[in-house]
Fold this protein.
Amino acid sequence: MGSKCDVIVAGGSIAGLVFAAEAAKRGVKVLLAEEHSDVGEPEKCDGLVSLRGLRRYGHAPSEIVIQNRIASGLVHSPSGKEMAVNASALDVVVVDRSGFDKQALQKAESWGAEVRLGIRAGDLRESGDGVTVKVGGRTVDAKYFVDATGPASSPRSGIIPAAKYEIEADWVRERVVEVFLDAELYPGFFAWVIPFGAGVAKVGVAGRGIDSFGTLEKFLAKRPHRVLRKVAAPIYVGGPARRFVEGRKVFVGESAGQVKPTTAGGITTSIAGAVIGARWVSDSVQLGDRGLLENYQPDWEGRFMNEMKSMLRLRSVFEKLTNKDLDSLVSVLSTSKLLRKLAESDFDFHASALLGALGIPGLLKVAGVVASAEARSLLSGS
Ligand SMILES: Cc1cc2nc3c(=O)[nH]c(=O)nc-3n(C[C@H](O)[C@H](O)[C@H](O)COP(=O)(O)OP(=O)(O)OC[C@H]3O[C@@H](n4cnc5c(N)ncnc54)[C@H](O)[C@@H]3O)c2cc1C
């Protein structure tokens, strides 16, 4: 490829690579630049994802990158109460994110996308009918620029510090994801243990304003373990960006805020953004009609916006709860009917499932056990 192509993609992680594969499959000339010298590295993501969601968008991982299948989730309240959700029907797996990204690279290249590693793309200039972008030392002309640069471009206010270790430990439950709630230790988020095999887990903490490594060390202090790898990477919980398209610049994945505001899971929603975005960008290229880009955001929002709004609502309540509230909630929510409904729900639409299963009477009951006046009014005003 010379110094001209149809689309330049900045960022060679899951959103950029899936975008490149999908657009190249439609005959679009794509040049993708990834600043790291290898795709999937350094690996920061835990890879907890629903196979159902990935199949829906045609990008399920091959067996070789599936590290574990999850049977249940266990939520611990600050005082040690527990709520167990059966996840065996939810099709939730842990993938090796680096391996998964490398599969996406293979797809992109096999469809003819040019992927260049170890270089940055940026310094965008728009002209009437195209863009000029610096890709490494070269200036490249294209019709559109796709920003798949991840958290670098996502809205700042939604970013929470986080740290995670991969560890070996004999207390890890092989098929159980554990979540530890504590509004004082992990304000606005939680600690988690995601097993990726027998006796190995990805263990992390996130919280507003916390010293993430110090907090993780404290979490692990009473739990004997051997560290295999340490990672610090902020998570994003701020919800979708206001605009996915600005002129000839198109945002996909985390840079468009296509991430769940409850758990910060972004693999499926980012892949969906890449698949949907690639469809509209490709049509725009092929039909020479920039106006078609305007279909991308409503298309993605039509599938995810209700769920995103429910998640943002749950987050705003969650951020106001005290430890006493969290204890009461874990007790109140552990009813067999609710747990059964959650066990049958869709992992990618868990907030709508929870709110739907509770209904108005359930929400009022929940509001009744919550001490925080702000959280109570948010719940009962719903
Ligand atoms: C600690 C942690 C745990 C997580 N666990 C989960 C999980 O279990 N399940 C889940 O679904 N989600 C999880 N996520 C979220 C998930 O990792 C992201 O939502 C997803 O990776 C977003 O993909 P992306 O391609 O949009 O961005 P990213 O994966 O952030 O990739 C952006 C890429 O762009 C590159 N880049 C940036 N600027 C430039 C430039 N100018 N030129 C070239 N390249 C550039 C970066 O190097 C990077 O490779 C987790 C996130 C974190 C931080």
Residues 10-16, 33-36, 44-49, 120-122, 148-152, 162, 164, 204, 233, 235, 253-255, 259, 264-267, 270 surround flavin-adenine dinucleotide (CB under 6 Å).
